[in-house]
Design the sequence.
C-alpha cells in the first residue's frame, strides 16, 4: 500500500531576514523621514539633519513631534489593505506586507505607552506643558495599551487568516523572531553613527525598538480562537533579489542615514 509523506514547509532564513530588514527600514524612514522630517520642512523648518534614529532641526512643534507616529499608523493601515488585496502575490511579498504592517503599527501604538511611562520621546514633547501633566501621561499609557493590543490582534489575524499559519505552527517562530532580531540589530548598528550622540541609542532608539516590536514574540497567544487559517503560506525560498536589495539598502541605511543627512530647503 502506497503512503504519502508530507514534507515540512521550510523558509529560507536569509531571505526572511532580508525581507524583515527591508520592512524595518521602511517603518523607520516613514517615521523619521516623512513623519518628522518632511512635516517639519512643510511647516516651517528651513533645514535639518535626518538620521536613522531622529530628525533634528531648530524648528519644532507638537505636530512635528506627533508626525512620526501618525505616519506609521496610516502606513500600517494601508499595508494591511494592500495585504488583503494581494491574495495571489508571492509568499515573500505577502510576508513583507504583513511584517511591514506590524512594524508600522507597533511603532505607532508603542510610542504612546513608551512616552507615557518614561515622559521621554515624541509624545512627551506633544504633551509638554499640558496640565495636569500626570493625567496626560496616564492617558497616553491607557491609549497605548489599548492601541497596541489592537495591533497585536491584527498581526495575529494576519498570520492566521492571510498567511495561513496557525499559532501552533513551528514555522511561526522563525517568521517572527527573525523580524524582531533584524530590527534591533539594524537600528542599533545604524544608531551608533548618529550625529546627536550615543546616549540617544541607549535612552530611546534601542529601548523603543525592543519594546515596541516585542509583540512579534507573543502575539500568538492572543489570536482569537474563531480565526482559522486560509490556504497555507508556501515556503519562502531563497531569493537573491530580496537579499540583494536588502543588503544594498542596509548599507545605505547604516552608513549614510546612520551618520545623518543634512537637508536644506532652497531660499
Sequence:
Amino acid at each position: 500500500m502506497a503512503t504519502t509523506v508530507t514534507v515540512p514547509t521550510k523558509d529560507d532564513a536569509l531571505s526572511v531576514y532580508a525581507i524583515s530588514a527591508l520592512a524595518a527600514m521602511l517603518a523607520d524612514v516613514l517615521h523619521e523621514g516623512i513623519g518628522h522630517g518632511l512635516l517639519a520642512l512643510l511647516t516651517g523648518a528651513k533645514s535639518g539633519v535626518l538620521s536613522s534614529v531622529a530628525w533634528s532641526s531648530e524648528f519644532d512643534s507638537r505636530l512635528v513631534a506627533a508626525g512620526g507616529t501618525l505616519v506609521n499608523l496610516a502606513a500600517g493601515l494601508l499595508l494591511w489593505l494592500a495585504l488583503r488585496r494581494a491574495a495571489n502575490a508571492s509568499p515573500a511579498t505577502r510576508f513583507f506586507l504583513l511584517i511591514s504592517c506590524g512594524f508600522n503599527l507597533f511603532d505607532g501604538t508603542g510610542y504612546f505607552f513608551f512616552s507615557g511611562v518614561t515622559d521621554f520621546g515624541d509624545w512627551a514633547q506633544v504633551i509638554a506643558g499640558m496640565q495636569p501633566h500626570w493625567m496626560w501621561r496616564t492617558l497616553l499609557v491607557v491609549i497605548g495599551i489599548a492601541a497596541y493590543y489592537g495591533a497585536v490582534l491584527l498581526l495575529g489575524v494576519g498570520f492566521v487568516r492571510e498567511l495561513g499559519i496557525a499559532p501552533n505552527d513551528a514555522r511561526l517562530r522563525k517568521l517572527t523572531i527573525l523580524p524582531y532580531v533584524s530590527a534591533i540589530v539594524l537600528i542599533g548598528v545604524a544608531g551608533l553613527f548618529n550625529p546627536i550622540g550615543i546616549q540617544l541609542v541607549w535612552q530611546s532608539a534601542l529601548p523603543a525598538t525592543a519594546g515596541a516590536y516585542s509583540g512579534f514574540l507573543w502575539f500568538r497567544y492572543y489570536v482569537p480562537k474563531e480565526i482559522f487559517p486560509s490556504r497555507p503560506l508556501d515556503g519562502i525560498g531563497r531569493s537573491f533579489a530580496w537579499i540583494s536589495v536588502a543588503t544594498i539598502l542596509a548599507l545605505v541605511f547604516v552608513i549614510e542615514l546612520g551618520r545623518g543627512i543634512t537637508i536644506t530647503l532652497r531660499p
About this structure: The radius of gyration is 19 Å. Strands lie at 47-50, 55-56, 261-264. The CA atoms of residues 114 and 208 lie 7 Å apart. The first strand starts at residue 47 and ends at 50.
